[in-house]
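**Discrete fold encoding**
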Amino acid sequence: MGRPGLNRRHLLATAGGLATAGSFGFAALGTGADALAAGARTRVRYWNLFSGGDGSNMIAMLDAFRRENPDVAVKDSTLQWGNPFYTKLAMAAAGNRAPELGVMHLGRVTGFSPGRLLDPWDVGLLAKYGIHEKDFNPALWKRAVIDGKLYALPLDIHVQLCFYRRDVLKKADLIGDDGRLVPVTSTTEWFDVLKKAKKVTKGGLQTIGLWTNDQNFQWWFFTAFYTQLGGTWFNAENTEVTFDADKATEVLEFLRRHVTDGYVIPGAPTGEQFVNGAPFTWEGNWSVPVFSGAELDYGATPLPPVFGKRATHAESHSFVLPHQSGRGGATNEGAHRLAAYVVKHALQWAAGGHIPAYTPTLSTAAYQKLTPQHEYVSAMDHQATEPKVWFAGSTGILAQDLGPMVVSSTMGSAKPDTVARRMKTELVKLLVSKNPMDGHTAAQGGAVA
């Protein structure tokens, strides 16, 4: 993904623009200007974690902004994805060396000490550039608000999806007249679908790819189905664990059954097998460019509502304002202007599979022509997210601690009911632990430091 501190052009030139998403490499197709524009009056430094396919799409959006706003000089830098990015961003904010604009996963914002390491957005200034709360999904916007202030501006939601091969499933009579996968509303129906699909699966291929030994994917899948069951994590005050071990056991048994019934080959490369003819794979929406590039006859839906309620795991790339002691003036307005432009011109971003957070984009004819994006856009309305606590979010402590437990159940090294109890015990420990960013527990979270 590149070393921290490399700007995007250097990253793409030296690393060949390659990053891993799922089990494939994405080739970056463009380059972005990384030097200050000649004669520009306002400089905006922008740190992000987008490489590969996402990186090339972001470059195109930044270059479009530069052409339309020559008075703003955008210096964009791509840092290493995951915790290295968040560590560097936190250190820069704490040391008053932060850029004017940054990107974070929305789930990590609560734990980033808003008010000390992040500055709130000026909603009046956003409105000046056409950004209004009414143009965003209410649940998504609410997640970005802490202590009554907006600390994140959502760019998208990215979700876990059920990818399926039409050409394969037609042989099993599992494609409806509308060209989509037949509806599934229960675990019984789902395993009936897999049973039929297995009969038409080529030898050597699995029926479905589930990333059975990957702690992140297993955690994301667990979160989705636990939410479908109506499972909760903590009470409203974050003082009590409400995690339901019985519901968790039901989800873990469901995931495990894919292995015991022979629909999964543990450790098999999921994306590659799908390209080679496997009927199903569960992957993030970032795999859309890969499967479309392979010219497959495929579709993608949110994860099946096997427990009755629609819910699929979702996260969000969001713009943030890393703390600057002297934030304000032209550079701050430039950051608002840039973020607003990208959010409002996210059709390019949607090409990478992400669902734009700016809802007017979703109703455009251009977006509705995107395939299979238009098939899973409904995921915006039934997001399964991690709890709003400091230790949650992409690559956060919650996923690091509980993800391996889910893997142990799915892979069969531990019993589902035992794992469910262990998960609850770990949640009790996390709830009383303190955020190293500000020394607050989850119950104290959100208080401006």
About this structure: Residues 1-38 have pLDDT under 50 and may be disordered. The CA atoms of residues 347 and 366 lie 8 Å apart.
